[in-house]
Specification:
Length: about 350
Amino acid sequence: MTTHQRGALYLATPLALAALLAGCGQAPTPQAGPIRITGSSTVFPILKLAVAGYRGTARGRDVTVELSEVGTSAGLRAFCAGEAPIANASRPISTEELQACAAKGITFIELPLAFDAISVVVSGGNDWASSISTQELSRTWSAPAQGKVKAWNQVNSDWPERPLRLCSPGKDSGTFDYFNEAINGNKANSRTDVETSEDDNVIVACVADDPNAMGYLGFGYYKANAEQLKALAVDAAAGRAVAPSLQAVQDGSYQPLSRPLFIYVNDQEMRANDAIRSFVGFTVGNGLRFVEEAGSIPLPPDTYRLVESKLYRHILGTSFGGDLPVGLPIAEALRRSFDDTRKPEYR
């Protein structure tokens, strides 16, 4: 797609969606209170740009948006309790969360917004590690390693006998859930003697300041701090280590740590509140630009039009049935997101 074509996409699709969602350019009706958005720290930088951009428009000038990063699990708990009309998520909604939403009578629209490559990072001062296998990752991060794997040479005998410091997202993080499902088989199989935070900036600082540290976080945070951090190539098949990158995620070669990112929108709240409809339409219509500016990995440009269609047609439910799609090729994840939502059992 040419620069001119991308510019046309940015301009045309938000206007078209605004006409469908909010009455041909009329300002949103007054809201009872601020729009609360909460959830994933990985998705947070994208939504931060969306909020700032929306506030700069005539439609958003008088709309208050409260954005917080508390982790995917905490965000979806608030969402399914009816405490926030929009949740950011770095994994699909789980079976337990689906049940919580159903118990409250909350129906929702699941909107893919970007891709991510969970990046295994070390300090730029680490001069011995450049790649790591999924077996070595499990040896490092699984529950049996707790209190036992304390040095780098216990992960890989070619590495030095230096103390190993581990920094990771906390248990409310979708990144934590996805990493442990992909590497250790399930999120319960994770060691707890590590330094944790729901704020990826804390993980950045933990690793960047210590050559003996290892951590994992979203690709956007690694990319924004690439002068301080080094991302390890991940070897999921013997002898084929692949570094996280836009191309490696889009061509499916970065496995098993690539994943889709979402926003979840309470459908009843959106139908009742023009400000929510207007903000979500603006965010999705400009999604490609915001994702690129945030340093995350965008969907294919034309796919954002499909996301818009899913939004204004109010296609409800999740495409993933409460499961984490570990190892699912990106093309298949997208196909599910726009086809399988029509199945009644996912609504």
